[in-house]
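Forwarding these from the shared drive since the link keeps breaking.
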Amino acid sequence: MIKGLWGKKIGMTSVFAQDKMVPVTAIDLSNWVVTNIRTQQRDGYEALQLGCLRKRYVPEQFTSAWIKSPNKYFLVFKEIRFTDKPEQVEVGKSLDWKIILSEGTVVDVSGTTKGCGFAGGMKRHGFSGGPKSHGSNFKRIPGSVSFMRSQGRVIKGKRMAGHMGMASRMMKNLAVVQVMQDVPVILVKGSVPGKAGSLVFVRKA
């Protein structure tokens, strides 16, 4: 059994489900090709290696040259663990993702959050800041950095300004609201980590 699937986040929208407006995230599951099958005897673990095709090679048929020059034909490679080898899985073919996911399936979606560069304490941690009236010199200043300042130290874990975003996060227990029939796209309830175009891993909860 396959543990999950890799896809690309398209963006967010809203759809009607059971007479309610539901916010959803669209995830594209297309253009992933099996490039290798890891086995316990050869590699020490069992997994499927998948490659995401570059747009220019999507209409073409799979050839052995794709494996010999992988960086030319694929953008990125990912692996998916499995317990029992799925049927009809071959190198050069795509996975039948509809067997794994269907409407109503509860999934966990993991990805990398958007990078926000260097951010201050108010944006990074949600500090309220100082008074906004005239005469205040506090404004957006973070304030005291602890009682160890006289020793030239700061308490470990002190919430201060710094690099914000680009962290691995997972949203759990999200329902698959809709499975598109004409295109390999699923609509997952709620938001998932990352920006449009970023890779996400979808697994059954």
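-- next protein --
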Amino acid sequence: MKNKERYIWISLVAILSCSLFQPIDRVKAISTEGEKYLQILHEVVGFIETDFVESVEEKNLYTGAIKGIVASLGDPHSRFMSEEEFKHLQEETRGSFGGVGLEVTHSEGSILVISPYDDTPAMKAGIQPQDRILEISGKSTEKMSIEDAVKLMRGPAGTSVTIKIKRKSLKDPFPLTLTRELIKIQYLKSAYLENEKIGYIRLTQFMGRENNTGGEFKRIVQEFAAKEAQGIIIDLRSNPGGLLDLAIELSDIFLRPELDIVSVKGRGEKLIRVYKSQDNQGKVLDVPIVVLLNAGSASASEILAGALQDNRRAIIVGNQSFGKGSVQNIYNLPYKTGIALTIQKYYTPSGVSIHKKGITPDVVVNQITPDNDDKTLIEKLSKTTIIQNFVKDNPGYTEKNIKAFQDLLTKKGYKMNKTISRFLLKKENAIGEKSPVYDREFDPQLNKAIEILLNPITPKPTSM
């Protein structure tokens, strides 16, 4: 009976193997070793189904096994997606889904924020790159998969979710309650600074095939060039990346033909392909470029920044980027499921892998951050309603209200840096409002980029 059962099981595995891994010519025959462990898996499932103290769903057993296989790779970017999770990914690629607006990854046993999306509940609540999410709806994320974390944070618009955040700059974790919205990502924002004759374009993510992000980006920079712009600022801060081909397409706009953009290597560091700039129409080659990066700039952002930096086509300003130097492919599986699998690592034109390192800016400029004393005061202030009550009684970000607010803080014992108190007041007044395309008041990185374009410096040489 055992032999017959084993024969049936092996036959079933063979049939499933042919159906799961299309096309047929990519199917790898099951080895003797693989056959052995598939038989073990079958028998384990059998014992669980017949003898385990509680009844279980067969679907959950096999899904858990599949996730375990992928997790054994030790790669946080490879993941199996259930039907619901795969649907969410497709919605995100199209640019519309319900949730709080966060790009996250798994790192050191918890959920790490890569960046919040613009004009989303997460951005409005002040969530920052490198924040760690310790809890979602009261559930610890210590052993939680990315898929489960995303599932908990997404939901119908108008519903709320509470998360607990650990921030490096603060001693204690703090809770945030976010109201979900229909997240419609606007991938591109742009403006022309008439006085300075500088074009500004912000790309929030390398997505939006259906919205023709590449074509729209090219149209905008060509308009800047037609206005004889003195320079163009490409803002990739808190851009978590996205599609490799879009990063290559955008890099190509600014590079003369036959220059390296990025190379990708597969298993055993075998060179798969070197992507080079093409002899295309509509290039923007003579306008100086500054690229803005921060710790939330990852993946495709680093490909674009690295290509322009190594080819001495742009000055990079800001902070060290995130350091995600791997390429994932998305595979469709039966029953509307899918798998994201890391298949390659990419290298900048100078042959450098930035994986877990990031892109180093030519000019390092830090954003305005509170010192330790101000951090303590901000944490203390966050547990009160002082700011909310003041704005309710004194709406508007005016010089009169700024002075009154600073006087109120001093009276209540909050001796805070005036720049920080102005920032807090402006942020509170902006809650619920659409974010401006840019805001120079509290943005030294953007101001430095403008300064560089008005007083050009030579991009540093890169070893090739």
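The two ends are 66 Å apart (CA to CA). Residues 1-27 have pLDDT under 50 and may be disordered.

- D.
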